[in-house]
Structures are given as structure tokens and as C-alpha cells.
Specification:
heterodimer; A: about 140 residues; mainly alpha; Cytochrome Bc1 Complex, Chain D, domain 2; globular; B: about 425 residues; mainly beta; Neuraminidase; five-stranded mixed sheet; four-stranded antiparallel sheet; 3 helices; 29 strands; about 35% strand
Chain lengths: ~140, ~425
């Protein structure tokens, strides 16, 4: 019990640090989002019409954490939930990023663009990496 | 005071009597040079793309939602008859003789334009079809010369011909196989029907996406403003930073000649260095130059990512003398500049003489984008995408956000 509480507190702490800025500094997840994701998906997560899809409020960002982690790691087109005409550019794979960094990015976008969806942990990313055929 | 009031009443009365255009008091928020006025002709045909104006004044507009014909029947400058027609959803639209040529991602088609008829009732004919369906840079924009020679922009379905498109560090394929079927201009006889890409000949190459392509009748020559490459910083972070990517790779304005090679994907024109450099995918180190003389320098190097989406040479008579022979360019505006501030979103005038730049470009119409919350192109109020010169010399501009169409006239008030 105490152990699971400690674990929950650890997760909450990670989520809090990844999602929110401390003393005006952007959260690590936001810094990484700005570096790897913002140009295509834009600061508001709205994407660019006919170029890159919006991630804000989308099915990926609010859905299953490990499925999201695997999709971002593998890259490609979101053919499952988009019309071809909505999206011009392919998402490159991000499997080169460390588990903790991917977890921070995904936690940030779920908090900011995913209606407060649950955080993603490095363990979630590691588990998803296990089902990535290339990793 | 009273005389001024009287003069205004008389002037309004006269305008109503002769049916003059009702120019918007604030030019609909557009910022124009002194003496120019703008009026909103129409809004609402979806994601508008290119447009053209017939000698009658009837306007034809392409959009991703379909084609439409617009007519002003009472002379107030606003379209009061709007008729959607046809089944082509795409970008290009040009009147050639008694035909309306249009395109989508996979072909070029034409409709007969009959006297007095607003929306064409005749059958659509296929000029060229069966271009491969691609996701990127697939709009088959085109130009027609006086004989009906058809120059089609076949954009490259790639950013920089990397082995893995848009992946960090992936090197360029050498030679770039995409150039065999894409990344250039293919020429056809535009008066022949039912052609396929195999009937065309590659006219010019090394062009990533020449959306803004136009025949210059005065020079008897083809010109284009070409979309330059994206993502220098995210693909090669050790060579370029975000500011470099936002500002260095030019949107290149060229005269396009038979057999010309304009350098994509191997090079780009670096506006910071003022010279052409090797692309990082092809051994570039942010300063190394290609073999001297292999690729031409642009007539004008426009700022990075402005997205030149239409080009028109000013053929009218009603604008001041300096506009004759010059080029208007509609810049759709950037997305790839983020996180740096976005830019473009304006119509630019490039003075020209004998087919060469004749002085620096000038911003002609601005104020389209508005506040653009979060620096996001999606939040731009308007994005200029198409241009046309009307029979009275007015410049028409179309917008892709709301399908708004403006007419810009000189001495209108």
C-alpha cells in the first residue's frame, strides 16, 4: 500500500514536472515539444491545414498511452483517423529519443492538448518500445 | 461644409447612377499603397485557390471544394450571382481563348466558355490526366502560352529527396530519382485531349514545387516563383538553428528556360550568404557552394517560407506606369518558420523590365493575416493564394481561409 502510494506520488510528481512550468521556466516536456514537434504541429497543437494534422483534442492524444508512444516512435501517417487530403507530410519516427524524453513530450501534449489525459511514464514508453519492430 | 455635404450626396448619387463599385471605407482592413482601394467581391466558396476574370468581367474561381462562377449584375463590384459548377476540386484556373482550363492533383481539364453563359454548360474535357496521386506538392498548377502550349508544374513529393523524407540526418538520394517524374515543369500541347504524362516532355527540372507559374506574353517566356525547402534545423541541427531555418532558404524567382535546372534538391539559395549553397543532405556544411555556373541564381530571392502561390504579370492599364511589365506575387504565408514568427501572408509587387528585376520588391497588399493567435497559420484571418487582372486593370486576390475575393483598383475613390 505504502509502496503503491509512493509510486503514485512519483508518477504525479513526474506528470506535474513535465506538464507545468516552475518559476516561469517552461516544463521539460514543453521544451522538448518546442524542439521536436512545434514547427509541424504548431504551438497551439492545431497543426497546419493540408500539411500536418492537429493533435489537440485528437483521438491519439486522448487515447491509450502506449499506443500513442508507439505511433510517435514509429512515425508515419495517421491513416486510421484522417482523410488522406487532410495531411501532406509524413511524421518522422522519434524512436531515437530517450524513454524519459518521449514520456515528457507525451505527458505535455496530453495535458495541454488532450483534455488533461493521464500522464505517460518512461515505463510506458519502454513497454511500447518493446512492441516497436525496429527498436 | 454644406457644399462638401452636397458634393458627397451628388457623388453617391452619381455612383449609384453609373453603378460604380462601392469600395470599402477601410479597404476591408487591407493595407494598400496610396491611391488604391479594395472591395470585397465575394466570400464563401470554401478553400479558394486560383481565379481568373473574363473580358466580360465574370470571375471564375477554383477551390478545394469545387469551381464557381461569379457575376456582378448591378455594377457595385460585388458578385450577386454565384454559380457552382463542374466537378474539379483543385488549384489552377486560367482562361485561354474560349476555354476555361482547370486542374486538380492528377490532371488538367477544360470547359468551353460560351458567350453570355456564366457557368459552363458544356462537357468537361480532359487535356492531361493520370499524374500519380501524391500527398505532398501535388497541385498541378500550369501556364499556357499564346499557342496553347501547356507548362505543368509537377511538384516533388518530398522535402529534400532524403532517403527517408523529413527524418533527422537522413542523407539525400544521389542522383535524386524523384526528378525523373517530378520536381520540374513538363510541357504538353494544351490543345490536344486525353493525354497522359507520357505525352509530355520534361521542360525544366530542379524545382521543388513551382506553384506560382505564369507565362509572360511581353517577354514570350515562362517564369516561376518556387517554394524552397523546409526544416534545415530539425534535419541538420548541428549545422542550422531555428532562426537559420526560418530565414535562410530563398523562395526563388526564375525565368524558366527549356532544359533549365534550378538546383533542387542538391542546393538552395541562401539569403544570408547571398549565394547558392549545397544542401546539407548533399554534403553541404552551411557554406560550401556547388560547382560554379551549374545552377542559375534567382532573379529575386524572396524570404524563406513565404509560400509563393500565384504569379501575375501586370497587363492592365489602370495602375500607375511603374506597374507595367511588373510581377504581382501572392504569398500564402509560412508554417515552417515556427517557433520563429511566421511571415509572408501578403501580395508583393516586383518591378521588372525586359524580364529582369528592376529594383527591390514592394509590399503591395498586406494585413491579410490579422493577429494570428499563437503564431499559428490556422489562425490567420486570410491567406492570399490567387491573383488575376480584370479587364479594367483591377487586381483580384483570392483567400484560402474563408474563400474571400477582393478587387483592388487604382483611383477608385
Amino acid at each position: 500500500m505504502a509502496r503503491s502510494l509512493r509510486f503514485a506520488a512519483l508518477i504525479a510528481g513526474t506528470w506535474f514536472a513535465a506538464a507545468f512550468s516552475v518559476a516561469g521556466e517552461p516544463a521539460p516536456g514543453q521544451v522538448l515539444y518546442n524542439k521536436h514537434c512545434l514547427t509541424c504541429h504548431q504551438a497551439d497543437g492545431g497543426g497546419v491545414p493540408n500539411m500536418q494534422p492537429a493533435i489537440a483534442g485528437g483521438t491519439w492524444v486522448t487515447g491509450d498511452a502506449s499506443a500513442l508512444a508507439l505511433f510517435v516512435m514509429s512515425g508515419g501517417f495517421d491513416s486510421a483517423s484522417r482523410k488522406d487530403s487532410d495531411v501532406g507530410n509524413v511524421m518522422p519516427p522519434f524512436r531515437q529519443l530517450a524513454d524519459a524524453d518521449l514520456a515528457a513530450i507525451l505527458t505535455y501534449i496530453r495535458q495541454k492538448f488532450g483534455n488533461g489525459a493521464s500522464p505517460v511514464t518512461a515505463a510506458d514508453v519502454a513497454a511500447a518500445r518493446g512492441s516497436d519492430p525496429i527498436s | 461644409m454644406r457644399n462638401a455635404w452636397l458634393a458627397r450626396v451628388v457623388s453617391i448619387g452619381l455612383t449609384a447612377m453609373i453603378g460604380g463599385p462601392a469600395f470599402a471605407a477601410d479597404n476591408d482592413g487591407l493595407v494598400l499603397p496610396a491611391g488604391f482601394s479594395a472591395i470585397v467581391v465575394h466570400e464563401g466558396q470554401g478553400t479558394a485557390r486560383h481565379l481568373d476574370v473574363a473580358a466580360s468581367g465574370d470571375i471564375y474561381l477554383a477551390s478545394r471544394n469545387g469551381l464557381s462562377a461569379l457575376r456582378d449584375t448591378n455594377g457595385d463590384g460585388k458578385a450577386d450571382v454565384v454559380t457552382p459548377f463542374g466537378d474539379v476540386k483543385g488549384t489552377e484556373l486560367r482562361i485561354f481563348k474560349n476555354w476555361l482550363y482547370v486542374s486538380d492533383d492528377v490532371g488538367v481539364y477544360r470547359y468551353p466558355l460560351k458567350k453570355g453563359e456564366l457557368a459552363p454548360t458544356g462537357q468537361r474535357e480532359t487535356v492531361v490526366s493520370e499524374f500519380p496521386k501524391e500527398r505532398q506538392h501535388s497541385d498541378k498548377t500550369f501556364a499556357l502560352d499564346a499557342k496553347g502550349t501547356l507548362y505543368i508544374n509537377v511538384g516533388a513529393p518530398s522535402n529534400s529527396c532524403q532517403e527517408k523524407d523529413r527524418q533527422e540526418g537522413s542523407l539525400g538520394q544521389n542522383p535524386c530519382p524523384i526528378l525523373e517524374k517530378y520536381g520540374g515543369v513538363w510541357v504538353f500541347d494544351g490543345t490536344k485531349l486525353n493525354q497522359t504524362p507520357a505525352n509530355g516532355k520534361r521542360f525544366a527540372t530542379g524545382m521543388r514545387n513551382a506553384v506560382a507559374i505564369e507565362w509572360n506574353a511581353g517577354q514570350n517566356a515562362l517564369f516561376s516563383v518556387i517554394h524552397g525547402r523546409d526544416s534545415l534545423d530539425t534535419l541538420f541541427p548541428t549545422l542550422y538553428n531555428a532562426e537559420d531555418n526560418a530565414t535562410r532558404q530563398a523562395e526563388e524567382f526564375h525565368q524558366i528556360v527549356d532544359g533549365g535546372d534550378y538546383g533542387w534538391p542538391y542546393t538552395f539559395f541562401d539569403t544570408k550568404l547571398g549565394k547558392r549553397v549545397l544542401a546539407p543532405e548533399y554534403g553541404g556544411d552551411a557554406k560550401k557552394e556547388p560547382e560554379a555556373g551549374k545552377y542559375p541564381n534567382p532573379l529575386v530571392a524572396f524570404p524563406a517560407h513565404w509560400a509563393p502561390n500565384d504569379l501575375r504579370f501586370y497587363s492592365g492599364k489602370s495602375f500607375p506606369a511603374k506597374y507595367r511589365e511588373g510581377a504581382f506575387i501572392a504569398f500564402h504565408g509560412s508554417w515552417n518558420r515556427a517557433p520563429e514568427p511566421q511571415a509572408g501572408y501578403k501580395v508583393v509587387f516586383q518591378p521588372m523590365k525586359n524580364g529582369k528585376a528592376n529594383g527591390p520588391y514592394e509590399v503591395f497588399a498586406d494585413g491579410f493575416a490579422g493577429e494570428m493567435k499563437d503564431n499559428s497559420p490556422r489562425n490567420a484571418q486570410y491567406r492570399p493564394v490567387g491573383l488575376a487582372v480584370g479587364p479594367d486593370g483591377s487586381l483580384f486576390v483570392s483567400d484560402s481561409q474563408k474563400g474571400r475575393v477582393w478587387r483592388i483598383s487604382y483611383g477608385g475613390k
